[in-house]
Amino acid sequence: MQLTSSINRSLSRRQGYLAAVAGAGIALVVRIGLGAVFADHAFFVLYVPVVLVAVALGGRDPALVATLLCLAVSAATMGEALWARPANLIDTVGFALLGPFIAFSGERLWRRSGEAASRQAHLQSILETVPEAMIVIDADGIMRSFSTTAVRLFGWKTEEAIGRNISQLMPEPYRSEHDRYISRYLATGEKRVIGAGRIVVGQRRDGSTFPMELAVGEARVNGNRFFTGFVRDLTERRDQELRLQELQSELVHVSRLTAMGEMASALAHEINQPLSALVSYMKGSVTLLEQPQPDLGKLRAALDRAGDQALRAGDIIKRLREFVAKGETEHTLEDPAELLEEASALALVGVRDRDVRVDLRLARDIGRVIVDKVQIQQVALNLIRNAIDAMTEAPPRRLEIALCAEDADTIRISVSDSGPGLDPAVRDRLFQPFVTTKPAGLGVGLSICRTIIEAHGGRIWAEDNEGRGAVFVFTLPRAMEDGRA
Questions:
Q1: d(C-alpha 182, C-alpha 162), whole Å
Q2: Cβ(118)–Cβ(140) below 8 Å
Q3: What stretches of 59-172 show up as alpha helix (H) in DSSP?
Q4: 193: which residues sit within 8 A by CB, 6+ positions away?
Q5: What is 292-306 written as a DSSP string?
Q6: CA 69 to CA 27: how far, in whole Å?
Q7: Are residues 48 and 86 in contact, defined by beta-carbon separation less than 8 angstroms?
Q8: What angle, rounded to 10 degrees, do the helices at 60-78 and 2-33 form?
Q9: From the CB of residue 320, how many other CB atoms can be counted at a distance below 10 Å?
Q10: How far apart, in whole angstroms, are the C-alpha atoms of residue 258 and residue 263?
């Protein structure tokens, strides 16, 4: 900014010098051309405009140069007559004093003019880049400034909007009432919009309307009142929020798929057990049927157990499909204990082979929650799998999943492990994106968990477990009796 101002001043001084030389040359031509008219009169008033133009364009130094050049022109064209006549001598001395006075006085005005132009250019750059539409009106509601963003938002060109009443940007009945609002404020001083943002309705040039957030400020300049309005299109913000939600949904979905990839071998083992049992029961049933006198009781029991194993395999696959399915966010009224039981059943697949002791301490009848079931189960699954991974090299392995009432309005869910505990190097950054202690981890799991829990109105944090290990805790608000959160 300072460099630009310096360059502008240098260019202005150069223009001033050119004006001083050109003006003196023109004065010389006029003096010679009208020599018979001027005769032997100095007539220094002819040179004053040259000094004024020089100081206006370039400040003090060009004005001093213009003064010297004009004195030289007079001396060259009048010769001894410039000094011989007392009247000419008085004019010469007067001009010799007047020129520097104009130069030094005009220097201050010239600098102020340059600074004002610089501020105006700076303000104009702000008006062209500020993301919110900015409109300035006077006490009569007439628009005096209309930013580039306002042009895009309302459809009016700057030259078309300036001079019009601000009510042109409002639909009825606000358009007819706006001037009355200003008059009432000027008369009473009661602020309703000024200093506080509010949501109103705007109207574009084509007549379409849209919701917008309006904030108004007031300023006084030379006794005149001006009001500056900042306008934000809420439809654009809503579109951005929807896009952000879509991106978050994509990330959450990818996280679930990643978790399923890590659990694939364990899931295959878990599903293989009921399928193997099913095959055994069916082969046993065939063997019983081949007997001369089949034992119908044993046959019925074998078929019942085969059916149970088929249902068990179906339940595992169903839970898996529900978890990895990408669907719209849907909040439903859920029993937190049942929700955790289902999540735990999926997360603890294959844990038996790792020699992990699991304790489920799920309090019953502590109320319900309104949540996106799959998302909350994803949080629980992520925390449980993290706890299991943390205990890989730390026997004995004890895992506790607990549910209890935090207070009258909140439930508390915790996952405790007996692993090495929280790493001090990342303890304060656990829930930040891309922070992980796993060699092959991406560091997005806990960040996604925090996003989900906070979106449900809860909190999530980590603390040290008594004795050894870590505890990850999150809370959820309880639903009211009428089903509201």
A1: 18
A2: no
A3: 60-78, 81-84, 86-129, 148-154, 158-161
A4: 181, 214, 216
A5: SS--HHHHHHHHHHH
A6: 10
A7: no
A8: 10
A9: 17
A10: 9
As a whole number, mean pLDDT of residues 423-439 equals 72
CB of 44 closer than 8 Å to CB of 94: yes
23: nearest Cα among 63, 45, 50, 51: 50
Q: CA of 154: how far to CAs of 35, 105, 125, 228, 475, in Å?
A: 63, 46, 20, 16, 45
Return the minimum-mean-pLDDT range out of 63-72, 112-121, 176-185.
Answer: 112-121
Whether residue 417 contacts residue 391, with contact meaning beta carbons closer than 8 Å, is answered with: yes
> What is the average pLDDT across 242-261?
60
Residues contacting 189, CB < 8 A, separation 6+: none
Q: Angle at CA 127, nearest 5°, toward 125 and 131?
A: 110
Q: What does the pLDDT read at residue 416?
A: 93
- Token pair 């010469």 is found at 92
Nearest by Cα to 386 from 424, 415, 344, 352: 415
- The model's pLDDT over 432-475, given as tens digits with 9 standing for 90+, comes to 766 666 655 555 678 778 888 888 899 999 999 887 889 999 99
Q: Give the whole-angstrom CA distance, residue 263 versus residue 347.
A: 8
- Tell me the C-alpha distance between 165 and 131, whole Å: 23
Cβ neighbour number for residue 322 with a 10 Å cutoff: 14
* Sign of the alpha-carbon torsion through 476, 481, 483, 485: negative
Quick one: angle between helices 373-390 and 445-455, nearest 10? 140
- For strands 209-221 and 356-362, give the pairing: unpaired
Q: Reduce the DSSP state of residue 21 to 3 states and report it.
A: helix
Environment class of 177 (CB within 10 Å of its CB; exposed 0-12, middle 13-18, buried 19+):
exposed
| In contact, 429 and 386? CB cutoff 8 Å | no
| Distance of alpha carbon 170 from alpha carbon 200, whole angstroms | 9
Cα angle for residues 12, 13, 15 (degrees, 5° grid): 65
Q: Which amino acid makes up residue 429?
A: R
Comparing CA positions, the residue from 29, 61, 350, 456 lying closest to residue 47 is 29
In which residue are the tokens 């050894």 written? 468
Strand-pair category, 397-407 with 356-362: parallel
- How confident is the model over 272-327, as pLDDT tens digits? 667 777 787 788 888 878 888 878 888 888 788 888 778 777 776 666 566 555 55
Both tokens assigned to 61: 């130094």
* Cross-strand pairs, 293: none
Q: Which residues, listed in sequence order, are joined to residue 462 by a DSSP beta bridge?
A: 472
CA distance linking residue 117 with residue 136, whole number of Å: 19
Omega within 30 of 0 (cis) for the link into 396: yes
Return the percent helix, strand and coil in the chain, to nearest 5.
60, 20, 25
Asked if the model's pLDDT at residue 419 lies above 80, the reply is yes
